[in-house]
Amino acid sequence: MISKKLSYITPSFTIGISSKVSQLKEKGENIIDLSIGEPDFNIPDLAKKEAIEALNLHKTKYDLVSGVKDLRKEICDKLKSENNISYDIDQIVVSSGAKHAITNTLISLLDYQDEVLIPKPYWVSYPEMVKLVGAVPVFIETNKENNFKVEPDDILKCITPKSKILLICNPSNPTGAVYSRKELEDIVDVCIKNNLYIISDEIYERICYENEYVSIASISDKAKEITITINGLSKSASMPGLRLGYSASSKELAKAISIVQGHLVSHPSTISQWAGYGALKHDKKVINKMVNTYKKRRDLVISMLSNIKDIDYIYPQGAFYVFIDISKLKDKINFKQSLSIEFCEQLLDNTKVAAVPGIAFGIDDYIRISYACSENDIIEGIHRIDKFINSLT
Asked: Quick check: helix, strand or coil at residue 151?
């Protein structure tokens, strides 16, 4: 008999859409996939070189649970030089992707029925991760006027005696919004006063276009004490399939996370770790080139979307997504339960463009598209979206 807790878990919308797109492509359909959340670049050459060298040197045995020392040292150097946060090597735990790093942290911090505060819109897996560890996701309502960035008053409305963690994504998936230092300082102040940990998912922090990026843990010593910084190489170094993430936290919590990881997976692939080492140590220029390309694509997407009637969007300052407001189309889409699901299904069926329904992120009046694809796909895909919206009566 399948565990009862699985009945409360919602399958991943993004994985489901990706599977459907793959099936359609296998049938020969000309699909423009604007749903994908992975870079379209290849792994950097110097990262590949380190991985190949590790294979040739037979670095395929068990290693430390918390990760290869050279990689953790490189992560410490990266956090110091780029994020202005000082960590010792024993405060870093390398995991099998940022998802795994978050889950390890939740297991290490939460007791049954503890509450995790999650601002809307949220990345699709956050609430399901919380439910899988026996805790309760509590959703925080945010405002479009503030680009859906959570504010102190929003948090205060949701705090209860069971509240233990605020889970925040910066830059945001799905909106691309980026928090300023002042905004983060205000959030930290609320969390300190209310004994909340902060899990800061910074997987997109290198893909930031407008202002200097600020890590929450860099704000103050007290902020660092309550913050678990989550990051990885899937987005910034285009290594999603190598499954490499990490957490940076207090020594006490890092030890707990290592204990959890040691029993679940031992440690991530050593070869992936050496590739990550190569990416961090050698390929900063390659990573910067990727970011510049994303920025050009962002500008292209925004210029095209601005000419489509009856939609609006959150202006993305980071990541590689646009969160598009389709609420003005409610009267034109025949839907029973979900506007965004029906819109995305009709869009895919009628124009062969894949997007992600906003309900996956907790807000049904939106869809998310990605510009982690070629300019040709962006132009053709948005032309098809425009044509589809104009066809609605």
From this structure: coil
- Please check whether residues 217 and 356 belong to one and the same domain: no
pTM for the whole structure: 0.94
- Is residue 50, in this structure, part of any structural domain at all? no
Distance CA 147, CA 243 (A): 30
Rounded CA gap, 9 and 362, in Å? 14
Crossing angle (nearest 10°) for helices 45-56 and 270-282: 140
Is residue 302, in this structure, part of any structural domain at all?
A: yes
Shared-domain flag, residues 145 and 248:
yes
The answer to whether residues 191 and 166 touch, using CB atoms and an 8 Å cutoff, is yes
Residue 326 lies in a domain: yes
* Structural domain harbouring 376: 4-42+285-391
CATH number, domain of 364, equals: 3.90.1150.10
Measure CA 313 to chain center.
19
Looking at the structure, tell me whether residues 341 and 264 fall in a common domain: no
Which of 282, 302, 335 marks a domain boundary?
282
Six token digits for residue 383? 């032309």
DSSP string, 304-343: HHTTSTT-EEEPPSBTTEEEEE-GGGTTTS--SS-HHHHH
**Domain count within the chain:** 2
Q: How far apart are CA 40 and CA 170, in angstroms?
A: 21
| Cα 30 to chain centroid, rounded | 28
Asked if residue 31 is part of any domain, the answer here is yes
> Which of 255, 282, 309 delimits the end of a domain?
282
pLDDT digits (tens), the chain, 393 positions? 788 777 777 777 677 777 777 787 787 788 899 998 889 999 999 999 999 999 999 999 999 999 999 999 999 999 999 999 999 999 999 999 999 999 999 999 999 999 999 999 999 999 999 999 999 999 999 999 999 999 999 999 999 999 999 999 999 999 999 999 999 999 999 999 999 999 999 999 999 998 789 999 999 999 999 999 999 999 989 999 999 999 999 999 999 999 999 999 999 999 999 999 999 987 677 788 889 999 999 999 999 999 999 999 999 999 999 999 999 999 998 888 899 999 999 999 999 999 999 999 999 999 999 999 999 999 999 999 999 999 986
Report the sign of the C-alpha dihedral through residues 187, 192, 195, 199, in that order: positive
